[in-house]
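Example record

The entry below shows one chain as it appears in the dataset: sequence first, then structure tokens.
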Amino acid sequence: MTSTAAPPVPAPSRQATAARRPRRKWRGWLFVAPFMLVFALTFVAPVVYAFVLSLFRDQAFFGGTTFVGADNYAQVLADPKFWESFQRVLVFLAVQVPIMLLLALVAALAIDSARLHAAGFFRIVIFLPYAVPAVVAALMWGFIYGDHFGLAADLNHLLGTDAIKPLSANWLLTSIGNIVTWEFVGYNMLIFYSALKVIPKELFEAAAIDGAGTFRTILSVKLPAIRGAIVIATIFSIIGSFQLFNEPNIMRNLVPNVIGTFYTPNMYAYNLSFGGQQYNYSATVAIVMGVITAIIAYVVQLRGSRKGM
């Protein structure tokens, strides 16, 4: 019995293969093009321009600008004013950010629990300070802190003392931290609360079956589930601390002898540029601070992701 071999199947031609290959659709890029254009004009272009400025230096006696390469960066790294301002915001970050995030987390857990009456009212009240512009908040708290005309002065007069001085050199950074905490507790609370609302109900049911109480449920279910939100809020708070500007810059009018031109790195860069006309050096300070902030934020994100694995 002989078998006949099946005829060979012809290989598909290149034209047929190209016809079956799905064409790349560029329609999606049309939707993101407006954002990409605005992003390039408002973020990429200023950063590139600042970097270019940082490579030059104005010649005071000869006029014009001269390419100096990395000399401006070496000068910033050896600038005691820059490091003093950086150390100040670093201390501010280490103290204020944990307190603010802890208060926001407690508020979010309390509002998320079923035991708090009028939870919607408290959510709005806690979030409301975030709607107040930073300039208005700094002015409002600045007049409250005033030991000659504000609430602090009234308390000193009532108690017959002059010990309450929120705008003194020893207490000023704490006073600014109180303003920032008052402003952003509600913002971070909303981040945590939103993360709590999307936790699967099955996890709470399993915890209840296992006999977990309220605090055990918080530690074993809620906090691990919102770890990503905590990392995001921490990164945002770190970036905001290094960008501290509005509050001390506004309050400088009240205590000019306490808040100098380099109280924070952003104030230092601002006053170098608009007060001293040192645009190149100001751009260098901004670039250095941007790099430091990006590195620290990346390390925090990396550690948070590893803990979540």
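Notes for this example: The two ends are 65 Å apart (CA to CA). The first strand starts at residue 56 and ends at 58.
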